[in-house]
Amino acid sequence: MARDPFRTPRISRQGDRSAYPFLLLPLILFWLFSSWQAYDYGLSQAGFDSGRASDQLAKLRAEMNILQRERELLKRQVAGLESDKRIQAVVQAELQTALQQQQGERLAAEKKLLFMRGVSSGDLDQALLEVRDLKTWQDQASGNYRLNFTISQAMGKQPAAQGKIKVSLKGEDKNATEVVLAFAKIAQGDWRSRMNFKHFQKVDWQYRLPADFVPVEWLIELEPEDEKISPYQERFAWKAAP
Known about the structure:
Layout: H1 20-121, E1 128-138, E2 145-155, E3 161-172, E4 178-182, H2 183-186, E5 194-197, E6 200-207, E7 214-224, E8 232-237, E9 240-241
Parallel strand pairs: 1-9
Antiparallel strand pairs: 1-2, 2-6, 3-4, 3-5, 3-7, 7-8
């Protein structure tokens, strides 16, 4: 076959393809450098956040320690206040008991003196009234208190005794101010304030103490209608029986 005289001859050079890797090397190095920069920045940021978190945690722990110490201090203060309240309650109860005992002794002496005066006067025609066996206690079913006592004639010709029964309760309010309450105001139901007996009469009535009222003593007055019977007045220490 005849060769074409106008065909361009193919020129072939050895080693042309070996230059391609050298052209890609700068791109690979740039990519590696950029990746390293991003990694290094991430590590630095992570280290910064970790340090800040550690500082915040240490600060919170310090604040918790302060709050814990304040809590322990408040607990000790509350315990001290409760102890003071218990001591105050014990002292107040002891004072109340001593006061009631002293009043009981005084009332017993006054009662004995009144009786001796009646005997020494020699006026046996004048009948004398007496209140005895006074008791007060709390009724567990209703929560009310009960007042119980007996009226009798101590001496004399003992005519029938008729007249008024006046009962008052003296005590203190929450401000330690003395208060005297008529029994009709604290009695439950219609208070029958009349006496009518030949030998004796029992009085048994329920009553309720006002709030913040501390009872101290009873005052009982008997006002007979018969002039042959002497009026009666006596104080009794208030003490609830168990």
